[in-house]
TrEMBL record:
Catalyzes the conversion of 4-hydroxyphenylpyruvic acid to homogentisic acid, one of the steps in tyrosine catabolism. Residues 438-467 are annotated as: Disordered. Its cofactor is Fe cation. Pfam families: Glyoxalase (PF00903). It comes from Esox lucius. This is 4-hydroxyphenylpyruvate dioxygenase. Gene3D superfamilies: 2,3-Dihydroxybiphenyl 1,2-Dioxygenase, domain 1.
């Protein structure tokens, strides 16, 4: 017995400036705003692309807002405020009022940085899940609660996870006929009220969340795995066929020091499957990343430092065509990490790319990485490329919030179900180079500032002679 998950419903972000993130999700990542809710204290906007749904929450009266005036233009944005303001007008900023003053289907996290911190699952029965999880000793932030409108009833509760600030909302929608959740207003209603909305139709075939990656402190992985196994019936997904159960998938050569362990859920006591029960969308995997000792500054440690604790480091968005998706997004202003140029000129890699039907130059334009999966597994046997090879294509965005924390990834799987070792190494190198260049920039700025200050404090020639 466990609180069996039937599907992932949405992922919630909590941010200081919802309009900034809304702008990025719609204009750059091509999501569509489809439901909204606003009360005196909370603003909740829901965005959708395929089956991938984000709810972005802002609490305008939060004490944290005073710190920076609610302005969180991220380092990667490149957005002109003017167009953002125009867009805010378009989405009818500040116009959706609803009586109940709470962060519906969630809790407001007392967190000082922007964060992705709630993964909402659909379950068949919230009451029995509650009883089971209570016996297991879980901590509840919201007990089973009913919300209804004229389309029916939804029951939900919020349980605290074992990973940093991550919570799970468990929701039962089986008695609800509406297309989202009661309490939210459909954006088309806004259209009827005469306000235009943005509808994205560009070539960006994102279909679902492929995986969610947690950044964790060292040695926490076994506890995390046990927690999800005991409570939600998750099971291990072996990234590599000869992966050690306790060690996970360890990458430790050439300056990289990373331990990855992955899991996914079974949708009932009977079945373990990589497809959700209605077979429409593959199950989203969970990856736990921890850095190995003595690695110094790196992607995982930087996240833990800047996020001020463990949490969701990145989310993989599945696309059926990574090249057109990355192209559309890059044109709209998304910044991707690029591996060192040598990655695309190396003969072996070029051959791999060409064999997979890709032009290395096109992939290099957007920083797309390609790995060939050589292992033979039952899960990937059905979807093998004509030449018997399986490929994995990935590209990683730069952090999307102010801090060096959360980022998104595009992933296209051509038969490969795991994570590419070569891709992870290339990503690691690009991030190290990025962090070093950022550090060098900061050093340069500091030196320039010091020089500026010391020049100012030096007596001028004139002063000297005047004396
Ligand atoms: O390869 C992927 O997409 C992963 O999710 C694995 C991973 C996890 C953490 C990192 O800092 C880098 C790569
Ligand atoms: Fe990933």
């Amino acid at each position: 017995m466990a609180a069996f998950v039937s599907r992932l419903h949405h992922i919630a972000l909590h941010v200081r400036n919802v309009d900034k993130v809304a702008y990025d999700l719609v204009q750059k990542f091509k999501f569509n705003l489809f439901f909204t809710r606003e009360t005196e204290s909370f603003k909740q906007l829901a965005f959708k692309k395929g089956a991938a749904v984000f709810i972005v929450n802002e609490r305008p009266n939060s004490p944290h807002f005073g710190l920076n005036g609610g302005s969180t233009l991220s380092s990667t944005s490149g957005t002109s405020l003017k167009s953002e303001q125009e867009w805010n007008k378009k989405i009818g900023k500040g116009k959706y009022k609803n009586g109940t003053d709470s962060c519906l289907y969630d809790v407001y996290p007392q967190y000082s940085v922007d964060t992705a911190c709630n993964v909402c699952f659909e379950v068949e029965d919230v009451e029995s899940s509650f009883k089971f999880l209570r016996k297991q000793g879980c901590v509840f932030l919201v007990p089973p609660t009913e919300v209804c409108d004229d389309k029916g009833v939804v029951t939900y509760m919020v349980v605290k996870s074992i990973v940093g600030n991550v919570n799970h909302t468990l929701v039962d929608r089986t008695r609800y006929d509406g297309s989202f959740l009661p309490g939210f207003q459909e954006v088309d209603t806004v259209m009827n009220n005469g306000r235009p909305t943005v509808k994205n139709t560009e070539s960006c075939p994102i279909s679902h969340f492929d995986h969610i990656t947690y950044a964790c402190p060292r040695m926490l992985t076994p506890q995390v795995i046990r927690w999800y196994e005991r409570n939600f019936g998750f099971q291990r997904f072996f990234i590599e066929s000869n992966e050690d159960v306790d060690e996970g998938f360890v990458l430790s050569q050439d300056g990289i020091g990373l331990r990855l362990t992955a899991m996914y859920w079974k949708s009932s006591e009977k079945g373990t499957q990589l497809l959700s029960p209605d077979k429409k969308e593959p199950v989203c995997k969970f990856v736990i990343a921890e850095s190995l000792p003595e690695q110094g500054s790196n992607q995982v440690e930087t996240f833990l430092e800047q996020h001020r604790g463990p949490g969701i480091q990145h989310i993989g968005l599945y696309t059926e065509d990574i090249v057109s998706t990355a192209q559309t997004m890059a044109q709209a202003g998304v910044h991707f990490f690029s591996p060192p140029p040598a990655y695309y000129t190396e003969v072996g890699k070029q051959k791999e790319m060409e064999e997979a039907g890709h032009d290395p130059q096109v992939l290099s334009q957007y920083g797309i990485l390609l790995d060939t999966d050589l292992r033979q597994t039952d899960l990937s046997r059905q979807a093998i490329d004509a030449q018997g090879k399986r490929y994995l294509l990935q590209v990683f965005t730069k952090p999307i919030f102010c801090e060096d924390t959360f980022f998104l990834e595009l992933i296209e799987r051509r038969g490969a179900s795991g994570f590419g070792e070569g891709n992870i190494r290339a990503l690691w190198r690009s991030v190290q180079a990025y962090m070093e260049s950022e550090r060098a920039e900061t050093r340069e700025e500091n030196t320039a500032e010091q020089q500026h200050t010391s020049l100012e404090s030096l007596p001028t020639r004139q002063n000297v002679y005047e004396d």
